[in-house]
Design a protein that fits this description.
Shape: elongated
CATH topology of the largest domain: conserved putative lor/sdh protein from methanococcus maripaludis s2 fold
Number of strands: 24
Largest sheet: 6 strands, antiparallel, barrel
Structural class: alpha+beta
Strand content: 25-35%
GO molecular function, one term: transmembrane transporter activity
Number of domains: 3
Family: Belongs to the membrane fusion protein (MFP) (TC 8.A.1) family.
Order of helices and strands: HHEEEEEEEHHEEEEEHEEEEEEEEEEEEH
Distance between the termini: 57 Å
Pfam families: Beta-barrel_RND, BSH_RND, HH_MFP_RND, RND-MFP_C
Main location: other
CATH class of the largest domain: Mainly Beta
CATH architecture of the largest domain: Beta Barrel
Protein name: Efflux RND transporter periplasmic adaptor subunit
Strand order of the largest sheet: 3-12-15-14-13-16
């Protein structure tokens, strides 16, 4: 079939226009992604982090106050005034309640009068004894009279001592009308208000708990105790073979920002739970922590060792086996089973399965054996990621099947 020159020109122009259109379409980002997707998808990868990490065991416990006092009066009487800063701090010796002191003041004055009377009688007994002793050698005073004078003098001395003790007791009772804080710490609400009659030893006025330092109680499992903690118990000579640092974190805190000292290990293992009660002491100079708060405890059980850390979103699970995808030769993805440990600063410790320097897939719809185009990024914890896309991306774990 013969083609005219005009038709050939039109056909050639159409081919050129078509080629131009193809070029334009391929030059768009959509076309680039469509072309790259079937072949080598671009996925973020990062090199594992290697740092020194101390082996540790984690427990849960609660904060407690070393000293707690239910404040009760030591004498009975009406409450005249209350100066309790409810929920605030008090120092030892600070006045909190004032009882009616007038009856005790009267009792003190009466005791002081009894003391003066006893002292006057003792002075007279001393004079009588001195006179009898001076006249006895001349026979002017009988032996019986001399013995009577001596007995009376000793009796008056005893009366003076008893009167002096009564004065001290009355003065002490008077001082008890000022109910002061026996310890420094945070005071609770007022439980008995002004105008009520407080009964000695029975009426609870308020409660005070010490807040600096605080104690942290937690239970250690038997295996951890046998392997590590038993070495921190003092022996018969008071010596220990291990010092175990303790770190504490609260419910609203990341990690373990507070440092404590292990100062107590229970004397026996509880047979019902197989645990040992332990206690650490934590400083609380600003009083921000309160007794009774839930606490997370990390107990370092050995010296720091080199460990591999990765982002948790790179970890997948397949029939109970955790794994990661490793960037292998030729940018091919390899399946690697791993054993995971605890979280340190937002990154997961890999106990086995990865070597320092290896690069893993952070996220992406990839599977083992697939060739990818790696996009290098840094390993970081989810808390450090700021881009919403990084937090919402599909983990590599969900893509492998």
């Amino acid at each position: 079939m013969r083609i005219s020159k005009k038709a050939a020109v039109v056909a050639a122009g159409g081919l050129l226009i078509g080629a131009g259109l193809i070029y334009v379409v391929q030059d768009t980002p959509f076309a680039q992604g469509a072309a790259a997707a079937p072949g080598t998808p671009t996925v973020p990868v990062a090199q594992v982090i290697t740092r020194e990490v101390a082996p540790a065991a984690e427990f849960t416990g609660s904060l407690a106050s070393p000293e707690a006092v239910d404040l009760r009066p030591q004498v009975s009487g009406p409450i005249q005034s209350v100066s309790v800063p409810e929920g605030g701090f008090v120092r030892r010796g600070q006045l909190l309640f004032q009882l009616d002191s007038r009856p005790f003041q009267v009792a003190l004055e009466a005791a002081q009068a009894q003391l003066l009377q006893a002292q006057a009688q003792l002075t007279q007994a001393d004079a009588d004894l001195g006179r009898a002793e001076s006249l006895a050698p001349n026979g002017a005073v009988s032996v019986k009279s001399l013995e009577t004078a001596r007995s009376t003098q000793r009796e008056r001395q005893a009366q003076v001592q008893a009167a002096r003790a009564a004065v001290n007791a009355a003065r002490l009772d008077l001082s008890y009308t000022r109910v002061t804080a026996p310890i420094s710490g945070r005071v609770d609400r007022i439980m008995t208000t002004k105008g009520n009659v407080a009964t000695a030893g029975a009426t609870v006025l308020t409660t005070i708990v010490s807040v600096d330092p605080l104690q942290v109680y937690f239970d250690i499992d038997e295996a951890t105790y046998l392997d590590f903690v038993a070495r921190a118990r003092p022996d018969s000579a008071g010596r220990t073979t291990a010092q175990l640092p303790v770190r504490i974190g609260l419910m609203n805190e990341e990690g373990y920002p507070h440092t404590g000292v292990l100062d107590f290990i229970g004397a026996q293992v509880h047979r019902g739970t197989g645990t040992v009660r332990a206690r650490a002491v934590i400083a609380n100079p600003e009083g921000r922590l309160a007794p009774g708060l839930f606490a997370r405890i990390r107990l370092d059980t050995a010296a720091p060792q080199q460990a591999v850390l990765i982002d948790d979103q790179a970890v997948g699970s397949d029939q109970g086996q955790t794994y990661v995808l490793v960037l292998g030769t030729g940018n091919k993805v390899e399946y690697r089973a791993v054993s995971l440990g605890r979280v340190v600063d937002g990154l997961r410790v890999v106990e086995s399965g990865l070597e320092p320097g290896e690069t893993i897939v952070i996220k992406g719809l990839v599977r083992p054996g697939m060739q990818i185009t790696p996009r290098r990024t840094s390993m970081q914890s989810p808390a450090a990621a700021t881009a919403p896309a990084a937090r919402a991306a599909t983990p590599a774990a969900e893509a492998v099947r």
